[in-house]
Amino acid sequence: INWHSSQIILRHLYDLQDDQFAVIKEYLELETKRMHDLERLITPIIDWYINYSYVKHTIILSPVGSSKLMSRVYKNLSEIKKFMNNYNSVKVIDQFDEHKAVSEFNMQSAYRSLRRIQKVYAIPASDMAAGRYKDRTIGDPMDACECYLMSKYSFEEYDTYGVIDWAVQAYNKWFTDRPKCVDIDKLHYYTRSASMTTGFSFETILGFSNLNHSDSTELSAHFSLMANALNIRDISAQSADIIYDKYDDFEQSNLFRNFRYLCRKGKSVRPLTYDSKCRYQTKNSPYRMIMPFKEEDISSNPNIKLYHDIIYDEEIKTITDMASKDLSDAAYYFNGKITLLDDKRLGQLKWFSENANPILFGKLNERIECITEYSTKTAEGYQTVNYGLGGHFSVHMDAFTDGPKLNGNRLVTILFYMSDVPDDGYTVFPNLNYVAHCRKGSALVWLNLYLNNGTVHSGTFHGGCPVIKGNKWIMTKGLYEEGQHLTYNWRDNKIINIV
Ligand SMILES: O=C(O)CCC(=O)C(=O)O
Ligand SMILES: [Fe+2]
C-alpha cells in the first residue's frame, strides 16, 4: 500500500493503528493472564517443595513416599512447561500484519513528496523544517531526526543538494540534545559523498564542531553553502529563488520551469484580453433560463472556459463516497506506456462508467453536452482523483500523441473540481500563463485539438501543482473525436502533430 498517495488512504492509517493496537492489547492481556496462571500454579508447588525439603532424604526410604515424589515431579513440571509455552498469545501475534504496516519504501516516497513540495515551491529547508511556507503555517516543526531522514532519503535518491540542504538542518538541531536517531557518522558520510559529487567540500564548511546556532547565521551559512556549490556569484540577494532557479537549470525545460513558476505564483500572469468575459449562459434551453450556467472565458485559442457551480454538493458527496471505497494508484500514461512514477503523478483514482449511477452520471452527461455542444456517446468514463501528500500531476497533455485510439483523440477535457484547496494545488497551463484554482463545484472545459484538422494544441499543456495542505478531489472526462460533427476525418490523421 502506498499510504501517502491519497488523503483517503492516509486516513486508513488511523484504522491500521487501531487494528494493530487491538492485537497488541489482546497479546498483553493473554500474556498477563498466563503470568497469573503460572504464578497460581507454581505457588502451591513451591510451598510443597519447601515443606518437603525438610524430610527430603527420608521420604525416599519408603516406597509410597518415593512414588509420591515421582508422580508429583512428573505432573508439576510438565504442567508448568505447558504454561511456559503459551500458544494462545503466539497465535495472536500472527494477526499483527506487518504487510499492512508502513514500509521503508513508503517512507522513502513520502519523503520524496516532501522534497518535491520543497523544490516546486522553492521552500528553503530552514523554513520547511519550521513548518513554514512564506507566511503560512504548513505543518509542525521538524526535529533533528526528521531532517536527518530528509538528508538520508535525498542521498538514496542521488539528490545531492537535498543532502546538503537537510544536513545543515539536521546538524544544527542535533547539537542541542544529540538524539540517538541521528546517526552522525552516516550524516557525515552523506555530506562527504555530496561534496565529492559537487566538487565542493561541504564538510569543511560545515566544520560541524563549531557550527553557529543563531538563526540568521544558520541561514546565511546555508545560502552561501548552496551558492558555492551552485556557482552563484551574486549571493547578495540571499533569496531562495536564486538557488531554486539554479536547480531548474540542471533539470528541466522552459515548460516545467514556467509550470513551477506559476505554481508558486498562484495566479495567472497575463493581461485581460478581449476574450476575458463572463456571462450567464442559457444555451437557449428553457430550463437554463431559470438556472443558467456561470460561464467565464479563459482563452479562445485554445478554447478554455471555466464554469462555476456546475456540479452540486450532493452529487460531489455521492461520487467521492463511492470512489473512496475503491481507489487505486494513479498511473502515468505516456507514449503508449503506463507507469507508476510518483515523480510524474501521485494520486489515487477511480474510474466510473455511467452504470455506476445512471441517474447522476446521466445528468452530468446532459450538462456536459449542453455546455460543450459535443456528444458524450463516444466519451470515456468519469475519472475521479484524490491527491495525497504532495499529490500532483506533472505537465502533460490529455490528447494522445502516439496515434489515434478506437474513438479517435481526446477532443475535449472536462475537469471538475470537487473540493476547495485554498492556497495551492492549482491546475497550471504553462504555455498560456494560466492558473486555475481548485474550487468546489467549478469545472474547467477545454479543447485539446485544432478544429480544422485535429492537430494537438500546444497551449493545452497543463499540470496539477503539488498539494501542500488540504484535500484535493477532481473528476475528469474526455470526449472523443468519433461521433462529433467535425470538418476533418480523424481516421486520416495517421501521425499526430503538436502545434
Ligand atoms: O489535478 C489537476 O489539477 C489536473 C489533473 C489533470 O490534468 C488530469 O487528470 O488529466
Ligand atoms: Fe490532464
Report the principal-axis shape: elongated
- Radius of gyration, in Å, reads 32 Å
> Can you tell me the residue ranges where pLDDT is under 50 for at least 5 consecutive residues?
209-216
* Tally of strands: 18
Distinct ligands, ions and cofactors found in the model: 2-oxoglutaric acid, fe (ii) ion
Give the spatial strand order of the biggest sheet: 3-4-5-16-13-18-11-10-6
Strand content: 15-25%
Helix content: 40-55%
Secondary structure class reads: alpha+beta
User: What's the end-to-end separation, in Å?
Assistant: 40 Å
State the major sheet: 9 strands, antiparallel
Mean pLDDT: 86
Distinct helical segment count: 16
What does this structure look like?
- The protein is built from 16 helices and 18 strands.
- With 499 residues, it is of the alpha+beta class.
- The chain has a 9-stranded antiparallel β-sheet, covered by helices on one side. The protein has a 5-stranded antiparallel β-sheet with strand order 9-12-17-14-15, covered by helices on one side. A two-stranded antiparallel ribbon has the order 1-2.
- A hairpin with a 2-residue loop joins strand 4 and strand 5.
- Helix 8 runs antiparallel to helix 11.
- The structure holds 2-oxoglutaric acid and fe (ii) ion.
- 2-oxoglutaric acid (AKG) binds next to strand 17 and strand 18.
Which terms summarize this structure?
499 residues; alpha+beta; 5-stranded antiparallel sheet; 18 strands; 45% helix; binds 2-oxoglutaric acid; binds fe (ii) ion
Can you describe this structure in just a few lines?
With 499 residues, the chain is an alpha+beta fold.
